[in-house]
Amino acid sequence: MTAAVAAVVLVGGLLVPHPPLAGAEPSAAPAANTPATASAAAADLLGDIVFSTPSGTFRQEVTVSLSTTVAGAQVRYTTDGRLPTAQSPLYSGAPLRFTRTTQLRAQAFAGQTPTGAPGTAMYVAATATTTHDLPVVVVDSYGAGRPDREYIDAATMIFEPTGGTTSLSAAPTVATRAGFRLRGQSSSTFDKTPYRIEFWDNADDDADHPVLGMPADSDWVLRGPFTDKALIREALVYDLGREMGLPAPRYRFVEFYRNTDAGPVGTDDYMGVYMLVETIKNSKNRLDLKQLREDDRTLPKITGGYIWKFEWMAAEEPTLPCTGPAATCWNYLEVADPSPLQPEQRTWLRDHIQQFHDVLRAPNATDPATGYRSYIDVDSFVDQMILNELSREMDSYIRSAYFYKDRGTKIFAGPLWDYDLTFGVGGFFGNDQPAGWQYQQVRQPVANDWYTQLMRDPAFVDQVRARWQTLRRGLLSDASLRTRVDTLAAPLANGAQRNFQRWPNLTTPMIGYFFTPTAPTWQGQVQFLRDWMLRRATWLDSTAGWGGPVTPTPGPTTTPTGPPPPTTPPPGTAGCTATYTVTSQWSGGFQGEIRVTAGTAPIRGWTVTWTYANGETVSQVWNATVTNQGSTVTARHLSYNGSLAAGASTTFGLLGSVTGTTRAPVPTCTAT
């Protein structure tokens, strides 16, 4: 979950439209700014308490009056972070005055008995006046200092640009209780520190807020590019992976203020350009797998869904042991989901992974019916390998290397995670060199050698080669890669200038333990990334890499891939269908998801149209562009999700407002 941080944000390379901000700070008696939007979680945070001044920032002093919607009740309040009790101060009716960051919590009481739902508002003192063109995230720990590995209480606020800019004097679009803590391994030692953030409700449980156009959730990460002086390496890999069909977290670029002392949020609390990133988890809007319950301990339910990862020298329990010779066993395999993992589930998953691991070394390894292809989704392994090798991430295959398995499915590679030591950054195990194979850079003890084993199969090598050559004619062409880098970098120019004023390390060759480029300007750092990537792609095009003809090895134990698919679509119906699902709704608002599915022939683009019947209006959208004409809404694909193979699907989502109850309309889909 994420902590609120004042930030200007870029989502997946696309600027997200922001709702207008409401409220202004009076010049005579400064008050906290009024939030522009409210989610179900925001309404729950207020409970049955009415705060005369909504959560927000203030200068010098803020005054707040309290009342309750519970008839005949009195109000008690606290300012120390704890919920009120019958011994807490009784609100007298006179305005409360605050001059420092305060968490005001209130509860209605009938005599000595609490009644109704408690409410919380946060007021963050701020003196910083910088204008930002990226979204801003602010996290204030009420003077509790910096967190370590345990969550500490913090006020979190997010400010979205309106009219192209925002500042700490604007109204936050998200203002919530939150916990934040340190995250990462080597990156946790950097001055520009990464954090994990959880949005909390009044009971310290998860609270789902929609953030900067991303679907509502409680769990987020603030990643601060530091060794990556171009600031866009991780975003670049996530975007490429998503367009290739791999799961990857959504993100937004923001600027982050972290205040851990008792003073107001000032310019000295500015932490630079960060990425606000979705965590990897099994949930409807993240990696949507079957949820394993405690009593799912027998077939077929025990077969999924699971998420696990390899974390070389850093895996945490629950981990799965390997059986076999030490020289061939995996190590550091950590199960990320479900949590808790039941003993029967742990045993089943370990045994299933062991079977796949063993068959990679068995005489029947390449048999299409009984070999490794019966265990894994080969296409996802191919695509993950292509991204790992193109970027030469220093920890590829051994750290933050995720895999998942749903109920009744094969093992899939992904989601993608942690790609900052890429494209010439790192300097260990040859990963700063454009030539050579990253999968061959082995560290002891070995985390896993799955790709080494797969690359011994000529059919797998041929499949990687064919996929690479196809991608080089489109998504990964030199022209496409140049354009993508430019598009990602363009909105960050002003933020990058502020970032490197805060962290003047452009010409520093060693950042922590890692070798980094020393171009003296941010633009030069972006150019280094672009040039290194194109040189790497050129090596992969060579016969030493994945160049040359695709020549599958025929035979009963291989699956030839053949030449790349033809550019003209095969016979079939080049149409599409769309289904609309209301995934969540609350008083005054709703969230929807639309799934677009191609017909029996590939399509190159799609347009979905529907008409609302109850006065609904769309306020935010992701993975599509939307236009409105009265109650009719038209959504069109973006550059990365328009082309669909026959029978393939993609989804886009939206947030909207409604005065009553929304119902799913019936959409129509037109393909191009």
Can you walk me through this structure?
The chain is of the alpha+beta class. The chain folds into 4 domains: 6-21 and 132-278, no CATH class; 47-125, Immunoglobulins (Immunoglobulin-like), CATH 2.60.40; 301-457, no CATH class; 576-671, Immunoglobulin-like, CATH 2.60.40. Helix 4 packs across helix 6 and helix 7 (478-489) packs antiparallel against helix 9. An 8-stranded mixed beta sheet has the order 1-10-17-18-16-13-12-11. A 4-stranded mixed beta sheet has the order 3-9-8-6. It has a 4-stranded antiparallel beta sheet with strand order 20-19-21-22. 17% of the residues lie in helices and 27% in strands.
Summarize the structure.
The protein has 9 helices and 32 strands.
Helix vs. strand class: alpha+beta
Q: Provide the gyration radius in Å.
A: 26 Å
- The number of helical segments is 9
**Stretches with pLDDT under 50, minimum 5 residues:** 1-37, 553-570
What's the helical proportion of residues? 10-25%
Main β sheet profile: 8 strands, mixed
From the spread of the alpha carbons, the general shape counts as globular
- With strands numbered from the N-terminus, the spatial order across the biggest sheet is 1-10-17-18-16-13-12-11
Number of strands: 32
